[in-house]
């Protein structure tokens, strides 16, 4: 589907988004220090109601969106999740649940399966129980996750395991892959931490070494060859050791749309923290208007906005200039070339962060509502 509205006369027509990430809530029992939610978390009273989310789902289907990801926070904290899944399935949308798994059991999963859920993506913080529960900040979480994985496959639902990897768990990547096989996952996503918001505050606790990264890359390559046809391994490498950036979200406002709990439409999960934007609300306006007509979505769409060196670069329609949120986080200007690119005049800030990486990980600043607190790496006390 295309639309007449486009940011510049010479630009190609804007295509409909492929996927919609619905962040139903920021509430979550876990406290991961790399959480992709904004540092200022929205509270339950600010969340959109069931009827409004259903209306958004209807607009998504009409817009040509194919996949809906129910996310959070922890989306199963919303009592109306089965109702929303049933509504989405009835509209012909492919439904994926992105969950930490700690609030679900066999019975509540069966309700979701009956509602038409197509896929479950279950996150793990580590394979080693003590480490996993320290990183997630929730005692008892690992057993619940392991139990849920069994219930997902028993229900006949496809399962993806998600591991966010960093200096404090990356050495156990081979065991993570083994766990994926053991639990019957068809896919495992190994994603290095991307540094904005909570994770940027925790960069010194999370940034791996070059040696750790090289070992992980070799592990992934060997496992992909060994497990071909049995399990897919998606791998998101870390920007801090890259020479070229990733095409964040497949390019700004090109393929994906996020909706925050309060109904702000965003081109990615971190955009809400960018200053100087008037984000469109789907609580008061339509999804189509947000996608096609809003200044916020059109600002960095395509290539016309790009500064040099992107403007003259042959990769400008490959990586779309990298990540706007990372450019803002590291340079204070979301319109600059992503510093992950070695051609960026700001690439030095990334190299400097790697050089400044301490031998000992910094204390975690856990995700939470209100003022942030730090915790030593052994997790024994809160300051
Ligand atoms: Fe990508 Fe811009 Fe770097 Fe070229 S200069 S590789 S378009 S970030
Ligand atoms: Fe926002 Fe990359 S996370 S553009």
Question: What is the structure about, briefly put?
Answer:
The chain has 383 residues and is α/β, with parallel strands linked by helices.
List the helices and strands and how they pair.
Elements: E1 2-3, E2 14-15, E3 19-23, H1 50-63, E4 67-71, H2 81-90, E5 94-99, H3 106-115, E6 119-124, H4 129-136, H5 141-154, E7 159-165, H6 173-182, E8 187-192, H7 198-201, H8 203-206, H9 210-226, E9 232-236, E10 256-259, E11 265-266, H10 287-293, H11 295-298, H12 324-331, H13 347-355, E12 364-365, E13 374-375
Parallel strand pairs: 3-4, 3-10, 4-5, 5-6, 6-7, 7-8, 8-9
Antiparallel strand pairs: 1-2, 10-11, 12-13
Helix pairs in contact: 1-2, 2-3
This protein binds iron/sulfur cluster and FE2/S2 (inorganic) cluster.
Iron/sulfur cluster binds at residues 244-245, 309-310, 313, 315-316, 319, 321-322, 337-338, 341, 343.
Describe what this molecule looks like in 3D.
Helices cover 31% and strands 14% of the residues. It has helices spanning 50-63, 81-90, 106-115, 129-136, 141-154, 173-182, 198-201, 203-206, 210-226, 287-293, 295-298, 324-331, 347-355; strands spanning 2-3, 14-15, 19-23, 67-71, 94-99, 119-124, 159-165, 187-192, 232-236, 256-259, 265-266, 364-365, 374-375. The protein has a 9-stranded mixed β-sheet with strand order 9-8-7-6-5-4-3-10-11, covered by helices on one side. The radius of gyration is 20 Å and the shape is globular. Iron/sulfur cluster binds at residues 244-245, 309-310, 313, 315-316, 319, 321-322, 337-338, 341, 343. Keywords: 4Fe-4S, Iron, Iron-sulfur, Metal-binding, Oxidoreductase, PQQ biosynthesis, S-adenosyl-L-methionine. One of its GO terms (molecular function) is cyclase activity.
């Amino acid at each position: 589907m295309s639309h007449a509205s486009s940011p510049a006369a010479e630009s190609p027509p804007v295509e409909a988004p492929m996927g919609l990430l619905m962040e139903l809530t920021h509430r979550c029992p876990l406290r991961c220090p790399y959480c992709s939610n904004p540092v200022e978390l929205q509270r339950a009273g600010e969340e959109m109601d069931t009827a409004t989310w259903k209306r958004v789902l209807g607009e998504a289907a009409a817009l040509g969106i194919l996949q809906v990801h129910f996310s959070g926070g922890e989306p199963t904290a919303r009592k109306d999740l089965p109702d929303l899944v049933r509504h989405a399935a009835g509209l012909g949308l492919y439904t994926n649940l992105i969950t930490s798994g700690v609030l679900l059991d066999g019975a509540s999963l069966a309700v979701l399966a009956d509602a038409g859920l197509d896929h479950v993506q279950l996150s793990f913080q580590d394979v080693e129980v003590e480490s996993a529960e320290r990183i997630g900040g929730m005692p008892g979480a690992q057993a619940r996750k392991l139990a849920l994985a069994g219930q997902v496959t028993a229900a006949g639902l496809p399962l993806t395991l998600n591991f966010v990897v960093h200096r404090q768990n990356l050495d156990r990547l081979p065991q993570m892959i083994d766990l994926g096989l053991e639990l019957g996952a068809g896919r495992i996503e190994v994603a290095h931490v991307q540094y904005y918001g909570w994770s940027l505050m925790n960069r010194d606790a999370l940034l791996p070494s070059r040696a750790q990264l090289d070992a992980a890359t070799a592990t992934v390559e060997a496992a992909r060859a060994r497990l071909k046809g049995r399990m897919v391994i998606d791998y998101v490498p870390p920007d801090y050791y890259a020479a070229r950036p990733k095409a964040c979200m497949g390019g700004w406002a090109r393929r994906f749309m996020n909706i925050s709990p309060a109904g702000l439409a965003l081109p990615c999960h971190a955009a809400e923290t960018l200053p100087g934007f008037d984000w469109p609300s789907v609580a008061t306006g339509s999804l189509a208007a947000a996608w096609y007509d809003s200044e916020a979505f059109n600002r960095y769409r395509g290539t016309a906005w790009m500064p040099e060196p992107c403007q003259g670069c042959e990769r400008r329609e490959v990586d779309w200039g990298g990540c706007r949120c990372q450019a803002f986080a590291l340079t204070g200007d979301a319109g600059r070339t992503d510093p992950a690119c070695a051609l960026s005049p700001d690439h030095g800030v990334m190299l400097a962060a790697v050089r400044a990486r301490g031998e000992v990980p910094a204390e975690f600043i856990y995700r939470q509502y209100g003022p942030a607190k730090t915790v030593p790496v052994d997790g024994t006390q809160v300051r």
